[in-house]
Amino acid sequence: MTMLHAHPLFSRLESARSILVAGAGGGFDIYAGLPLALSLLHLGKEVQLANLTFSAIEGLPPDAWVAPDLAEITPGTAPHQPYFPERTLAQWLALHDYPSTVHALAQVGVQPLRAAYRALIERYDIDAVVLVDGGTDILMRGDEAGLGTPEEDLASVAALAGIEGPERLVVSIGFGVDAYHGVSHGLVLENIAALERAGAYLGAFSVPRTTREGALFLDAVVHAQHHTSARPSIVNGSIAAAVRGEFGDAQFTSRTKGSELFVNPLMALYFAFELDGLAERCLYLDRIEHTYLMRQVSSAIEAFRDEVRQRPPIRIPH
């Protein structure tokens, strides 16, 4: 049994030598895992970074591909592309003298995504995988009134659920940010409680700005906002605002003009889970198991939603 002063997530990773930190939902999700990845690096672990990508990777040169649907992105990859979060992160890592390769996983269905993960795990002899969601829609089991944007997140969960061997964990950071996409965070809390009862919840911890990792995360988000000014990450901008101690409608990009944000300290918390326990609670995971394209994942979720009775939102009392 873990002692209170030792967080269960880090206890689970203590014996791991080589750890993969992977963004589950595309876009800038890997940035949401950066504080954790840096902390593990500072502990002397070998850490590989990967992200299910929204970037245009189809035209990358042959030497960028290490396996089907898996490419290595470096600071100099595809310099002509204005939107490339994996390359932007690789550039920031190089500026700070960290290993500067970020792996891009193609936006594909569960079967090819699992094969790409297997290739990555075998290539680096990975002992543990931490799947990261910037937001909370990875915690939706499928019958909630609003799911957010679950396709990529749950394709990633399903892909890793079928791989045995490494320790597999999930972390979510950015509590509240998915309200914009219709997620009821009252239902998120209910789901976390159910995962606790099932023994799959590993607790939560914050990313303070006074820590080395917190300060570096803030610097990385500013760097990314500067280099992707036309399409900065709303999720990581909100998390960074929370880490800085901002509150309420803390606007930081014109992309949220006309929307009222609710930046709050809970956005700076990592919630940690066992991946198998999370996968077992997803009501449609079996329906996306044999998908090869992301649009098949979307169609399977839509078909499930047409059949299921939805749980109404839960209001968090004032």
TrEMBL record:
InterPro entries: DUF1152 (IPR010581)
Protein name per Swiss-Prot or TrEMBL: DUF1152 domain-containing protein
Pfam families found in the cross-reference section: DUF1152 (PF06626)
Domain of life: Bacteria
Organism: Streptomyces durocortorensis
